Amino acid sequence: MGVATAPPPPTTSKTLQKQYLEAVGAYQYVLTFLFMGGRRSEWIRNQAIWRQLRDYYPVKLVKTAELPPDQNYVLGAHPHGIMCTGFLCNFSTESNGFSQLFPGLRPRLAVLAGLFYLPVYRDYIMSFGLCPVSRQSLDFILSQPQLGQAVVIMVGGAHEALYSVPGEHCLTLQKRKGFVRLALRHGASLVPVYSFGENDIFRLKAFATGSWQHWCQLTFKKLMGFSPCIFWGRGLFSATSWGLLPFAAPITTVVGRPIPVPQRLHPTEEEVNHYHALYMKALEQLFEEHKESCGVPASTCLTFI
């Protein structure tokens, strides 16, 4: 099938009020991500503030193939970026009309399990349909009698955030195979997803591999589950000052074609490696097919670590 894209925001020049509302939409997500931490709520997912967040960058959602709701899916999301903004906007809100592009699917964005130990933050993020990225939680979702479950996993996780350098496309994937085992246990199709521009909305201080700073980041990740990053955006009232407001760089999330996976309650390593290789190839193909239309130079390639 052809590529379907969610309708973009109007291209007319923005009023000062519109720019202000978009900045507020982007900034409130940053503050929520950093400092706030119910159950899934369609009312929360359809709030107007998410459309302002969408228009600020802007964020787009591109569909390349049908995902029939008569089966379940495991969507691998890449890259993690600093705050997974494109994935939150497209899968956890209706700002780009996910339910219209993929009718019958119920997306669940899987995030760090430790976030759900914070009472207020837990209820808030659960209203988006977020869930812990734990085996127990993901097995429970994909075991539901109602088909059309779509689990979205940031495969590279916190480690990949350390490589969120603008213009670079470095993915932590070579040894990440748990999501493939999950898909095999439930017979859920694997779907590669790439969010172009996710690494461009903040500036990151990247430390060389082997340096003491990088060692500290990895050690902290082992202890706490996430990696501390030194990052910055622009100021809330001035584009030339430092701050936490992200830079307004376009983000385009492209959902690839599904890879059929058989159900194996106890998959062998050979089966896991086979479907992992198929997934990596499909992801690389997705990147190559869409990179130039998303502003990435033709000479740029994905790097897997």
TrEMBL record:
EC number(s) per entry: 2.3.1.-
Origin: domain of life: Eukaryota
Pfam families noted in UniProt: DAGAT (PF03982)
Keywords: Acyltransferase, Endoplasmic reticulum, Lipid biosynthesis, Lipid metabolism, Membrane, Transferase, Transmembrane, Transmembrane helix
Enzyme class: transferase
Signal peptide feature range: none
Membrane topology: Multi-pass membrane protein
Main location (coarse class): endoplasmic reticulum
Gene Ontology cellular component list: endoplasmic reticulum membrane
UniProt record, GO biological process: triglyceride biosynthetic process
Subcellular location per the Swiss-Prot or TrEMBL entry: Endoplasmic reticulum membrane
CDD domains: LPLAT_MGAT-like (cd07987)
GO terms, molecular function: diacylglycerol O-acyltransferase activity
Family as reported in the entry's similarity comment: Belongs to the diacylglycerol acyltransferase family.
Protein name as it appears in the record: Acyltransferase
The organism of origin for this protein: Macaca nemestrina
Gene transcribed to yield this protein: MOGAT3
